[in-house]
Design goal:
The chain has helices at about 10-30, 45-60, 75-85, 90-95, 105, 115-130, 155-165, 185-195, 215, 220-300, 310-340, 355-365, 365-370, 390-405, 460-470, and strands at about 35-40, 65-70, 100, 135-140, 170-180, 195-200, 205, 350-355, 375-380, 385-390, 415-420, 425-430, 475-480, 485-495. Helix 1 (about 10-30) packs across helix 2 (about 45-60), helix 10 (about 220-300) packs antiparallel against helix 11 and helix 14 runs antiparallel to helix 15 (about 460-470). By secondary structure, the chain is of the alpha/beta class. Helix 7 (about 155-165) links the parallel strand 4 and strand 5. Bound molecules: adenosine-5'-diphosphate (ADP). Adenosine-5'-diphosphate binds near residues 459, 460 and 463.
Length: about 500
């Protein structure tokens, strides 16, 4: 009875439409596997195509034998639709992987429908398929044959619930195709009670209305039915709960993504700003250097053979050296940052006296301090010995002192070194411009500055490098400051020197 012909390649629009939806259903059908019992309830031919095609295709791909029981359509129609969706029907039939049967050969074999005999038959097909080397049986049947006088509703229910006993744990799965337009609501109602999963449109549904075989066969007690109802209620609630959790997780993810996006934008902004500051900073020492050298060249050219005074040459050379030192320091800082970014801060530690290192750096800064108008006072008693990296400690002190002079507003700078049993404490305090509270943590970040580039030159790297060094030495650095009332930087370094008495040296 081919009253409702399935769409074939001769009706391309519907097929093409179905073609797109096949992909979606295919994804959903991936949830199904051997042991499953599902019904496909459809109203339009396309709905049947989008669910039937991937069902057969996936079975073949998994190495199962696909048994297709035709009734509503002819074998040729079904084969044509499968072929149009990429199934090599002839090849699959030739190797026994795709088998078409009619309802007469299957459901009405003994002349009449017998649920038990049907399930026995299914079991035999399963065994034969396994023996033939298939991984199982993927069966589907067009159930329109059940519209006839046989079977009765009771028999059909009995058959479907026997399948629910047989299929779980077997190497077989079944997909019963019901055309909703042709069956009475009573039968569709039974169908929805007898299949654990239902395909509607391009979706696979966990069936909340599925009843256990015992319930369907009227063998379940009232207490058992109540248990079932409670279980179903819990299932719905659990599904809702999972959805809510998923929603929460998704919104948290969205917030996190937004934050990461902002961070990335901020990093790009900081890098761009840094590039412009860096080029400006690198150019700053070059201008006086060029002017001094140009001046000297002009003097030599205009001297008409007479020697340019020695002091004049020495003065220009000194000035040039000073600018070169600035350039070198800037380049060093940039190199340090790139090393730190790659996590390569190698330390060469030796036993040394922090007081000595501090005094040396202060001495080196004598000229700069005088220029800034700041007196630098060092308070330190005796020696404070530990195992540290000399050059890195010099760098820490250099950065703190040069900042104190730069931002110290020409007021005195106080340096103190103190030895405690296990650690050394270095404090650099100025009485200058100070730092606004909201910038206190930020200034230790890469390229971070709390002053305008117009008033104070700098790359915003000194404190970043300083903190990295201090941390590499397992120490800490903190700042206290009040806007307009100076800043105090406090570095604490573990001595990392084993002493015979168990106490630090000092
Ligand atoms: P730079 O001095 O090159 O800008 P740093 O990393 O050394 O970079 O310092 C970062 C920022 O911290 C400075 O731009 C400045 O705003 C602030 N800062 C550092 N030291 C002091 C200080 N002693 N007094 C006031 N502000 C300071």
């Amino acid at each position: 009875m081919n009253e409702a012909p399935m769409q074939t390649p001769t009706s391309p629009p519907v097929l093409l439409e179905a073609g797109a939806a096949v992909g979606e259903t295919a994804r959903q059908l991936k949830r199904l596997g051997l042991g499953d019992h599902v019904c496909l309830v459809y109203e339009r031919p396309e709905e049947q195509v989008v669910a039937m095609v991937p069902y057969v295709r996936q079975g073949l791909e998994r190495g199962e034998r696909c048994v297709y029981v035709v009734d509503e359509h002819s074998v040729d129609d079904v084969a044509a639709v499968l072929e149009a969706h990429g199934v090599e029907v002839e090849r699959e039939r030739a190797r026994g992987a795709l088998v078409f049967l009619t309802q007469r050969e299957v459901f009405l074999r003994g002349g009449r429908f017998e649920p038990e005999a049907m399930v026995d038959y299914f079991r035999r097909v399963e065994q034969e398929s396994l023996a033939a080397g298939f991984t199982g049986v993927c069966a589907t049947g067009e159930m329109s044959w059940a519209l006839g006088p046989e079977p009765s509703r009771q028999e059909l229910i009995r058959y479907e619930s026997l399948l629910n006993h047989f299929l779980p744990g077997s190497h077989a799965m079944a997909n019963c195709q019901y055309n909703r337009k042709r069956f009475s609501p009573e039968v569709i109602h039974d169908v929805l009670r007898t299949h654990p999963r239902v395909i509607l449109g391009d979706e696979v549904h966990e069936n909340l209305f599925y009843e256990t075989p015992e319930m369907l066969l009227g063998q379940e007690s009232e207490a058992g039915r109540v248990e079932w109802m409670v279980r179903q209620l819990r299932r719905v609630r659990e599904a809702e709960r999972k959805l809510v959790l998923l929603g929460i997780r998704l919104s948290e993810q969205a917030v996190e993504n937004g934050r990461l996006y902002e961070e990335a934008r901020e990093a790009v902004r900081a890098r761009d700003e840094f590039l412009s500051v860096a080029s400006h900073e690198l150019k700053t020492p070059l201008t006086p250097l060029r002017l001094r050298l140009q001046g000297l060249r002009r003097e030599v050219e205009g001297s008409e053979g007479e020697a340019v005074p020695r002091e004049r040459v020495v003065m220009v050379a000194r000035g040039a050296e000073q600018q070169l030192r600035k350039l070198t320091a800037l380049v060093e800082a940039l190199l340090d940052v790139s090393r730190l970014t790659q996590g390569r801060l190698a330390l060469t530690c030796e036993e040394l006296d922090l007081v000595e290192v501090v005094r040396e750096v202060v001495e080196r800064f004598a000229q700069q301090a005088a220029k800034a108008g700041s007196a630098v006072e060092v308070v330190a008693e005796g020696r404070v010995v530990g195992r540290w990296d000399r050059l890195r400690l010099e760098q820490v002190m250099t950065n703190l002192l040069s900042n104190a002079l730069k931002y110290g507003a020409g007021k005195p700078v106080h340096v103190a070194v103190r030895g405690e049993p296990e650690r050394a404490v270095l404090v650099v305090r100025d009485e200058g411009i100070g730092i606004e509270p909201e910038h206190l943590e930020r200034i230790f970040g890469k390229f971070e500055r709390a002053v305008s580039g117009r008033h104070y030159g700098g790359l915003g790297l000194g404190l970043y490098i300083t903190r990295q060094i201090v941390q590499a030495l397992e120490g800490t650095i903190e700042v206290e400051s009040e806007l307009g009332h100076g800043s105090t930087f406090r570095v604490v370094l573990p001595r990392r020197t084993p002493s015979p008495s168990g106490r630090g040296l000092g």
